[in-house]
Protein 1
Amino acid sequence: MCSSSFRLYLFLILWFGVFWVFRSGFGFAPLFHTDQLYSIHPKLLEQSHSDEYTLKYKLMGILAGIPAGAFVGWGIAQAIAQDDDWEHGIRGAAIGASLLPFMGFELMNHKYDAGHPQDAMRISAQTLFAFPGQYSADKRLNYALAWRKSYFMSKVWNLNFEIRYKRTRFRLGRQTVRYISPYGKSVQMVDIDFCIDYVDIALVPHVKIPCLHDDTRLGFSFGPVISTPVSDNTDFQILYKWDPAMFEGIVQFNQEYEPFGIMPFFAFTFGLELQKNGFVLGGTYFRSMGKTSQIERYREVFSVHELSLYFAYEF
C-alpha cells in the first residue's frame, strides 16, 4: 500500500498560508495611520492602476518569484521532512519556484484589477495509466485531481497554468538485482510494488476551435510540466538470494550503495478535449523529456509515459 499523504497535505496547507499572507498584505493599508496614507507622493496618487502595472513590472515580478519561491519551498519542505536528507529540499524548491511566480502574478492582478473578463478557472477529476518504460508488468488504474487557471490571450489562444496531484501505482515484473553495499554483496530476485504521489505543475498553451455550435469548442493543448514527488513508498519483497560469484544470469538492476532518493523531472503533456457550457471531457498524454530514475533504491533509468482521461468543469 502507498504511504500516507499527510506530509503532502501539510505542505500544501503551508503553501496556502504563504499565499494568504501575501494576499492579506494588500489589505493592511486601512490599519496604518491616516497621516501615513497621505505621505505618498501626489504624482503616484494620480497614476491609474493600468499605468502602474505594465508588462515590465509583470515580468520583473515573475522572474523575482522564481528564486524566492525556491528558497521558501526549500525551507518549508525541510521543516516538515521526517529526516535531514537534502532531496526533500530540492523537491520543495522545485514546487516553490513554480508556484510563487504564479501566486505573485495572481495577487498583483487582484491588486490592480488587471485580469481579463474571459479568464477562467477549472477543476477536474482524472483517471490515468502509467507506463514506466519496458519495466511495467501490471498496469493499474490511478487517479488525479487538478486545478487550472486559464488566461485569455485571444479568441483562439489561452495560456493555462495547471496544478495536478496524482498517485502512480503499478507492480513491476520480477527483477534480478545485484545489491552492493559497504557491508556485503548479493544478487536478489525481488517483486517491486511501486507507488509515488506527485505534484505536476504545467504551463500549457491552449488552442480553442469552435465546433458544431457556438457554445461547443474543440481544444488542443501542449506544453512543459515539472513533476515532483511528494510522497513515496516503493515496497519490495525479496524472493531469492544468491552469492554473486555463483550467479550466472542476467542482472536487470545494478545497485551500488544507497541512492539519494527520487527527484523531480521535466515532461511534456499533450491534450485534446471537448467543451460545452462549462463542462469538459478530454484526455492527455504525458511523457518525460528523458530517462529518469523514479524507482526508489534503484538507479536504473527509464522513460515515463502516462495516459489520462478527465472530466472537468470550468467557471
Protein 2
Amino acid sequence: MRKKDPYTRIVSLILCLGMLFSLLVLAVGAREEYIPVEWELDENLEYLYGGEKRYERYYVRGAFYGDANRVFHFANSAAWKGKMCQVYGESADPHIVSVGTEAGYHSIFVDEEGKEILDAFLARTDCIYYLESLDNYNYTEIGENLVAALEASYQNQGLPRKWVDVRELGEADILEITVHDRTETKAYQHGAVYIMPNGSYYYVCFETLDNRFFDADGFFSYRSGSVHVYELDKAMRTQIDEAVDAMAPQKTTILYERYVMDGTYDVYGNPIDETDSQDRRTDIVLFFVLTVFAGFLLPLAALIVGLALAHSKKTGRAKCWYALSICAVVWMLAAALFMLLVAV
C-alpha cells in the first residue's frame, strides 16, 4: 500500500483555506444596500408592522394634526380593506407613523418611544410652542413662560374679560399659539392672539373651552357665537410684537424613500453628489468583477486541478484531491448564492 504524500495534504489544506478566505473577503467587501421597509396593517387597525418593529395604534385624546418639519414618505404602502394606504414617518426609522387610512385622515401608530413622546406632548410636559401667523404662514418658536403667563391671565377671574363675537375675531389678524411634540411632527391648537382693527390685542385659550366652540374636526370655529377674550397689557403686547418680528417662513423637509433607494439621498435627507454616485458605481463594478474572478474562475481552476490530480498516476490517484474538487464546487455554489442575495 502506497503511503500518501504529506505535501499533497498540505497543498489541499492551503487551497481550501484560500477558498474560504476569498468568500470572507467577498462578504466583507460587499456594500450594504438600503432595503425599503415593508408595511403590514392588521385587519382591526390595531397594529402596524414595519421592518423588525411593531407599532401600536395611538388613539388621539383631543384633536392634533400633522405639522412636521421633516416627513419621510415610504415607498411601500400598507394594504387595508382592499386599498393601499400611504405611510409617513418623521425619519427612515420612525417612532411615530401616520397611515392614510381614510381620505384626509390618518391613523397614528407608535413604538414605545413614540408613545412616550406623544403622551408628553399632550400633557405639555415635553413640547415646543409656536406662534403662527395665519395670514402668511410665518412662524416662530416662543417660550413656555409667555404661554403660561397668557394662560394664567385668561383663567384669572380677577382680571377683566369680555365677550366678543367669534366672527369679529375671524376678521382680525390671527396669531395662533400651537403646541408641538419634541420631534416637531404633530401639533394642536392651544389658543390665539387676535390683533383687532382698533389696535387691541385679544387672547383666547382654546384649551379652557368646551366642545361647542369647535368644529367637527376639533378646530376652533369662527362660524357663530361669542367667546370670552382677555385684552393683553402693554408688556404682553411688546412680547408678542417681538415674536412677530422674529417670524420666518416655515420650511418642511420632505424625503422620499425611493430617492434613498436609488442613491440620490441618504436616509437623513442629505444629497449624494455626482462624485459619490460615480464612486458607488465604480465600487459596484469592481465588486462584481472581484466576485466573478474569486467566486467562479479560481474555484473552477481548483476543480479542474483537483479532478486531474485525483486521476493522475504521479499522485497515485490520491483520493484527497477529491476534497479539493468538492470544496471548489461548494465555493462556486456559495458565490452564486451570495451574488443572488446581493442582487435581490
Protein 3
Amino acid sequence: MKQTLNEQIALTKFHSLREFRERLQDGKLMMKAQIELLFLRDTFKFECYVKKYQLDQEVERRLIQSGRKDLFCIYFKYRRCTRSTESLLIHYPKALSIYAKYHALGESVQMAMVKQKKMATTLQYIKRRELCGKALLFFREHAEKKLVVIYDDIWMTYGK
C-alpha cells in the first residue's frame, strides 16, 4: 500500500467501507493500521480486510488476547493462524473453541495442549475436533479418566 502509516490509520478509522475496500486493492495495511481494525466497533472493515489478507503474526496475537468473539468468528472463518499463534490459542479456551470449529490444531500444538492437562482447554477442543494419533495416545495415558470418557463418548459412540 502506497500510503503512510497515518493515512492508513485514518483510512481504517474514518473513511467509508466503500473507500476502505477500494484502497485495499493497493496492498496490505501496516501492522499498526491492522491493530486499529481490532478496536473498531463496526466489524465490516475487519471482515473486508481478512477476506483479502492474513493479519500479521503480532496482530493475530493481539486478536486472540483481545477476547473478542465476534472477531474470532470472522477471522477464523477465513484464515488459519500461524503455527506460533496456534500455540497461544491453548491458553485461551474461548478462542480455541471457535478456532476448532474451522481448523484443526497442528500435532505439536495438540501435544502441548494435552500435556498442560488443563481440562477446560482440552474439553473445548475435543468437542469440535478429534485429536491426532500422537496426542491421543498421550491423552489416553495421562488425562483424567473423566475427560477420556467424555472424548470416547463424543468420538467413539457417535462417530464422525
Protein 4
Amino acid sequence: MKLKKVTAFLVGIVSLTCLASCGKNAESSVSIGENGVGEIITPDSGSEEYDLGSYRLDKNGIKLYYDDSDIPHELMLALENYFLSFQNEDFEAYKNSLASDYAERYDNYLRENYSGSSKNEDEYTLQTSFEVQCSNLRERMLNEIGSDSESESNKGYSGKFEITRIRGERPIFSEGETEESRIKDFFSYLDNVFDMDYYNLVKEQADSFEYLTFFIIAKGEDGEEHRIISEVDIVFAEKDGKYYTFG
C-alpha cells in the first residue's frame, strides 16, 4: 500500500507545473489549529493534484502529506522546520532542530578533524557543515531545472528554492529488519565518529525514536515545482514532546 502511495506521489510530481493557483478556494478558508496544521484537504478528482493524495496546510502554506493516525503532526512540523532552516539559510534554526548533545559533539569533531584541511578554511565547524548542506540543496535544484551554477546558460539562477510539499511515511522494512535495527544502523556512523556507543547514549536520554522516509518538493526560480529529495530516511529523538534530529 505504501509503495503505491509513493509511486503515485512521484509520478504526480513529474507533471507538476504552475500549480500555485490550484486549490486556492479550498485553501483560503483553512484555519490552522493548535496542532500547527489545518484540516485535511482532498483535491478534486480529475485535478492535477488528485494523484498526490490528501494533505494538510500549515502556517507556512506548505502542503504536508502523511497519515496522521500513525505520524504525529508535531513530527511532520519538526521535519519541515529542519529543512526550512536550509531554505532560509538560518543556522540558528538549524541548531534548534538538532539534539543539543549531537550539535556540540559534532561541532567539536569537525573542528578537530577538518579545520585547516583547505586553503580557504582556517576552521571547519558545524556552521561550515550547514553551509555546505545549503549549497548542496541549491545544486540539487539547479540540476532539477536543467541549469548549472558554473554555466553561462543558467539564466542567472542561484538554486534558491521555496519548499511547497513534504511527504512523510513510515519506512518499508526488508525481511528480518526491524525499526530498531534500522535506527541502530542509522547511528552506526555516529558511533564511529564519536568513538562510543552513541546510539545507547541517545536512547537513554530520549523518550522515544521516530523513523521516517520523506520526500521534498520545492518551487525553483523558474516558477515550477521540482522534487529535490526523494525517499530519504531520517531519525528523530523525542523528548518531552519535542523532536530533534542528527545531521
